[in-house]
Amino acid sequence: MTRIRKPKELGYRFPAEWEPQEAVWFAWPTREDLWPGVLTQVREQLASLYTLASRFETVRVLCPAHAQPTLLALLDRQPDRGTVELFDYETDDIWCRDFGPIFLLNEDGTECCLTDWKFNAWGDKFPLQSKDNGAPGWIAEKLGIRRFVFDTTVEGGAIESNGRGLILSTEVVLLNPNRNGEISKEEIASRLTAGLGADELLWLNDGLAGDDTDGHIDNLARFFKSDGILIADMDDPQDANYEVLQENIRRIQSFRTSEGRPFASIQLPLPDPVLVDGERVAASYMNFLVLNGGVIVPTYGQPENDAAAMEIIGDCFPGREIVGFDCRQIIHEGGAVHCLSQHQPAVG
Length: 348
Known about the structure:
Elements (H helix, E strand, L loop, with lengths): L20 E7 L11 H16 L3 E5 L5 H9 L7 E4 L8 H4 L2 E4 L6 E7 L2 H4 L5 H14 L3 E7 L6 E2 L4 E5 H4 L2 H4 L4 H12 L3 E5 L16 E5 L2 E6 L8 H13 L9 E6 L4 E3 L2 E3 L7 E3 L2 E6 L3 H14 L4 E6 L10 H4 L1 E4 L3
Parallel strand pairs: 1-2, 2-3, 5-6, 8-9, 11-12, 16-17
Antiparallel strand pairs: 1-18, 4-5, 7-8, 10-11, 13-14, 15-16
């Protein structure tokens, strides 16, 4: 039998999100049971988000034909819209970061491929998942690009790349038996580095309280340059997240770059607790979306905290426009702007 070569062997790499992008992908909510009581308002917000993102680059939305007139009507109300392309595919949910394809680039940046990992709705927490799981294959066929399929469950929000061979993730997700059964750190790291064209996996431990994903990295820590990491932080020792975040900070301070140097680290405070029906949700400013020339930052109706977070993120991405986007209703279903999106790197 011919051995199938993995992306790393073929010279592909997992680009960082601040590298040039061809487009950003979203998925439109068609299920009426999502966002009970506020779905109409959330759909209006999503149309506004697509329009905002289209100011910076092409927006591509998975939206079945029967729902496209509704979305188009909402988009037509938006001023200053750039290119928003609709693709006739219906998803189960809308968290495109997690079930969408993870795109890679070849060594000289002239070819893009996608990797297609299994999606099981964050450890089989939700029964509707087959359409989400099928999205990467459909997108690969639609775009006519090379596709690598893996029999390993991984969500895009669980991994973060510095574009230089390092991936950041959490033990609470990648080692959780609800994804891939009992698996060792070494085995999952081997699968991810081979499949994503990386060299090393850096491990944080636990996630935020109230996170349905168990603890995705995109609420905890993000690379802002190849040797710099933004870290979620808080200063209240009585808060449920305090010890988790302190441990993550300690680990990040012990990490070393590929050149053996410590990472520059900047702490980004969490918003004050956000409650939905009396339960805390995993609201985080870390769930920002980097685009060509801009960064969209989730806000939570906390003027001082929102402004401080936008200033810190702006300092990390000089030369990009920093725009806040109100996520107080979107967070009801557990995510924010990064969770909603999936970036496609530019080639050329």
